[in-house]
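job 3f2a | input accepted
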Amino acid sequence: MIFAMRRVSSLLRIVALASLWCGSGHGQEAPGWRVAGRLPKKVFDCRGCLADGDTVGIDRFAPVGAHRLWAASGNEWSWLTANRGRTWKAVKIGPAATDSLFFVDELHGWVAGGGPFPSGAFLASTADGGKSWQPARAVSEWKDASDCPRSGFADVQFFDKELGVAVGSAEQCGSGSPLLVAVTRDGGANWGVKLLPADGGRGGELWHVRFQSRSDVWANGGQAVYVSRDTGATWSVARRGAMFFGLAVIAGAGVFVAEGRDGVLRSRDFGRTWADVKLPPSAANEFFVAVAFADAKRGFACGTHGTIISTTDGGDTWKQELSGQTGVLRDIAFLGDEVYIGGDGRSVIKRRLEPAGPKQGAKKIPQPLDHPSADEKKAAR
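job 3f2a | predicted structure (381 res):
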């Protein structure tokens, strides 16, 4: 889905440059943020997407086990560290841009991506920890038979080893640009690929997907947040806005959406009502790109100018942290007791998570494979 994500990257660069004139808060220092490692300095040939010859940064993380961390760049190359970020190597997985990776366990994982013809949408799986990848046959057959020359998957997530959903878009598909959704119920042996109308007929792009339960699935991108209550068969609009980026669905805390210049949104009632989280004053003018939670209490959001905000009470209050970075921070991941953040440029930063207090509980809730709380189940009825 290189065409969509390149537009987002261009938008973020413009926002970052423009906001320099408005000033940027320095935030409250959080001891412990440091550079975990740097991506190898290398220039990639990706058909002009790196016109300035700069390095490829990080768009999406995919943690694996206790030490391995994959990262998709949104271009033809991905990154892999096997030692908690100290060293990284470049990996080329598929025939087109790699937008997202997801691992069910240390050996089994999926990659999603796409681009202009002839590459198009692709999903591929690995059963050996990423040493080799096999394209999903059903997706390849759909692509070959469709009239969608610019299709791509932007994200793929699994609820368990069998049930998975991938989302994206299909530009220049017939007379419109519908949403692209694929669902598997047998571990990827078969995928049902569908084109769904976008909100209001304005064309659409889905950039993120998250499970809340086996049947309840959230997705966002472009100007809408969508929810499905039948594992992706049908979708309804839960929220409209200017532009939606990161997405987190956390049991006991609700649904969080990074909304760019408008900050971070939260819903506690299955999307019926939404409210802006109260940002630290020094972060009020920043552009937020990603939001993620380690458990029901500890969460982070990040964006332009190296901005990071964090919460330890499930999103009720947030503080700004000093990252030491100046570019756009694009994604957040958790490995064991550490949190990692990456984005533009070569540096990946990390710090140790604050210990879970008595009210937080020591049990870590899987993220993004979350299960609904009793209140969320009641709201969904």
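job 3f2a | DSSP finds three helices and 27 strands in the chain.
job 3f2a | closed
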